[in-house]
Amino acid sequence: MIRIAELACGAEYSGIQKEIDRAAETVGAKIIYPEVSLDDILDVEKRFGVSVASGDLNLAMARATRIVENPDLADAVIVLTCFRCAEGAIIRSEIGSTSTRILSFLF
Amino acid sequence: MAKVIVYPPTSMILSDLVERMGHQALVVPSEVRSRVTAPGIDSPPLNMTPEEPKKGLRYAAVDVPSGVRGRMSLIGPLIEQADAGIISIESGCLTGCSGCARTNELVRLLIKTKGIPVLEVNYPKDEVEARAFVRQIKSFLEGLK
Fold it and tell me: Tens digit of pLDDT for each residue in A18-66?
């Protein structure tokens, strides 16, 4: 089964999480969420190089660095942030430039 | 007994202090509970459907990001019910947050502009500050009817 890592900061609150799960299901893929520790999140600025205020974006960045360090964790990555969110757009584009197996989208 | 909204709206520390002083804490988990215990869960785990960002339009403009509006559909009704508010400044993500700094800013703004008694306290960094933190909140809550 294809494993797609979801890196998002508000897919649940935007009400589109169900659509993401459904889309993955139609292609026989499974959405996964890479495990990260609290220290990974609190220290993410040092490893990622960007400081953002939003907790969920820091979580997405920590998950992104974990996948970069362990590419076997996922077959592909989908990065999602809100449309019109400046800090979300910066992080989305930075994560999106790390690999070719990444689909970047906004909602 | 007053209804007190706490910021961060998921703070167990603040909600516990409010409940101990005999008031009702308005927090997001209670709002989530009402959703996930309602008959028919359309979008697990939080049961947030595409309708929620539309409900958030009551609190934020249409050009505000959908994640902010979706979160406001949870937090906005709590602010409407509030008789008083407690805002913890620079509390960090570990105290409980909505995950979105932009939502946090809007929540703080709406609490402050509602015209209710609001206490703003700095999140404590050591034991001495923690004692002062609790004392300030206790004094504020005792003054509420």
Answer: 899 999 999 999 999 999 999 999 999 999 888 888 999 999 999 999 9
Smallest CA–CA distance, residue B33 to chain A, in Å, is 15
Q: What is the pTM of this model?
A: 0.90
Contact A17 B48 (CB under 8 A): yes
For B21-29, the CB contacts below 8 A with 24+ separation are: B21/B138, B21/B141, B21/B142, B23/B84, B23/B141, B23/B144, B26/B78, B26/B79, B26/B81, B26/B82, B27/B78, B28/B74, B28/B75, B28/B78, B28/B98
Enter the tokens of residue B85.
């508010």
B135 burial type by CB count under 10 A (0-12 exposed, 13-18 middle, 19+ buried)? exposed
Contact yes or no for B100 and A58 at CB 8 A: no
The C-alpha atoms of residue B50 and residue B48 are separated, in whole angstroms, by 7
Q: How many residues does chain B have?
A: 145
Residue contact B48–A107, C-beta within 8 A: no
What SS3 class is residue A12?
Answer: coil
- Domains of chain B, residue spans: 3-142
What interface predicted TM-score (ipTM) does this complex get? 0.88
CA distance A63 to A34: 6
Q: Which fold has domain B3-142?
A: Rossmann fold (3.40.50)
For residue B12, give how far its alpha carbon lies from the nearest alpha carbon of chain A (Å).
Answer: 17
Query: Cα–Cα distance between B39 and A62 in angstroms, integer?
Result: 36
